[in-house]
Amino acid sequence: MAMTVWVLMLRGVNVGGAGRLPMAAFRDMLRGLGLADVQTYIQSGNAVFRSDLPAAELEAAIGAGIEASFGFRPALFLREARQLAAALAENPFPEAAETPKSLHLFFLATTAPGADLAALAALTAPREAFHLSDTVFYLYTPEGIGRSVLAERLPRHLKVPMTARNLRTVAALADMARQLAATEA
Length: 185
Fold this sequence. Notes:
alpha+beta; Alpha-Beta Plaits; 2 domains; globular
């Protein structure tokens, strides 16, 4: 049976000295859980691997493993490789390809039925734009995400756990997952 290629994104890891997670030790911990072909990308808690376990079991095992090994339990966002590829393909802001750090994909833990889109629209700066799909919120901020009031206030208007990655990071993770899937015989 073919194993699924998974992409893992952790929230709040190695940011401002909090949630310290050394990537080499993180990879070793993931391998210790029986995950195959583990790779990490940059220092913010991104991993790509293979497993035949279902998502709920993976999330429980990884969360418990991080807590036991590193003393904290970050929010986990797990996507199959095909789901990450679909999030990229559905990007409603193709102009962001020129400046990939201007587009952030916020991966939601669940759908956001209580999202206050009118409040979000009121917070949108003149050149900003957003789009909400089922479990991805796309935020285009050509002036920079650090200046975005919408980005700052997003959690209180979407009301679901989320983690964000810029377009460059999502594309790199999707490419790693695609390459890993291609190596399976």
